[in-house]
Specification:
About 50% of the residues lie in helices and about 15% in strands. The chain has helices spanning about 15-25, 35-45, 50-65, 70-90, 95-105, 115-125, 145-155, 170-175, 190-195, 205-220; strands at about 5, 110-115, 135-140, 160-165, 180-185, 200. It has a 6-stranded parallel sheet with strand order 3-2-1-4-5-6, sandwiched between helices. β2, α6 and β3 (about 135-140) form a beta-alpha-beta unit. α1 packs antiparallel against α4 (about 70-90), α2 crosses α3 (about 50-65) and α4 (about 70-90) packs parallel to α6 (about 115-125).
């Protein structure tokens, strides 16, 4: 029976993916339209990867320039300043708030995000939803490592857990830890999951029913 849920945050709990896409575009607009298009494409294809990794990859693979420590710190600060308020005010993914309000006491709920640790903690505190989660994890910790650590620390059988995410990094973190995966899909990320054998949801309205069906199937397989 499922008793633990790992949640990504952006695009799963709140509708904040577009906010961060616009922030990446703004940061690199001085590089020209062609570069901005490449940056946005890279950002969307690597949803769920920390901005720390993205900035380094953008400079190496797209700009073909060295990224100094000073410029890296400046990019991180500008990005955080441009998205923080927007993410705090962003609407919830349909059904997400209701699920947490109704079922967070029935499950051990964890946030596993690529947003920097201090920032994701601040966002969740200011949205007044911290009490729904047993713990909140952000970058620079890797998602697959976070899930592995929680499973061991909390003595959780992977068969009794699910991961709800919207990025390939979420899917891989679940797969590497033998945890069932539920994809929250939109027009922007649908192509990522179309050929994968995972449950796909447009919203979290039916999340409790889906989790129950996963638990029933596990029990049937064990029986």
């Amino acid at each position: 029976m499922v008793r633990t849920i790992f949640f990504d945050f952006d695009g799963v709990i709140v509708e904040s993916v577009d906010i961060k896409t616009r922030a990446f575009a703004k940061l690199f607009e001085h590089e020209g339209e062609c570069i901005v298009k490449k940056v946005i494409s890279y950002h969307l294809e690597n949803a769920g990867v920390s901005r720390y990794e993205k900035f380094r990859d953008i400079y190496k693979e797209i700009l073909k320039r060295f990224l100094s420590d000073e410029e890296f710190e400046m990019l991180c600060k500008k990005f955080a300043a441009s998205v923080m308020d927007g993410v705090i005010k962003a609407p919830y993914v349909e059904g997400a708030k209701e699920f947490l309000e109704n079922y967070s006491q029935a499950y051990k709920c964890f946030v596993v995000s690529a947003t920097p640790q201090e920032e994701i903690e601040g966002i969740i505190q200011k949205r007044h939803i911290r009490h729904f989660f047993k713990a909140v994890y952000g970058a620079p910790a890797k998602k697959n490592d976070v899930v592995k650590t929680i499973l061991v620390k909390e003595n959780i059988d992977p068969c009794n857990a699910v991961y709800v995410g919207d990025a390939m990094s979420d899917y891989l973190a679940a797969k590497e830890n033998r945890v069932a995966f539920i994809a929250r899909v939109t027009n922007d990320n649908n192509s990522l999951f179309k050929d994968l054998g995972c449950i796909k949801l447009n919203s979290l309205v039916d999340l409790e029913d889906i989790i129950n069906s996963i638990g029933c199937q596990m029990e049937k397989n064990l029986g």
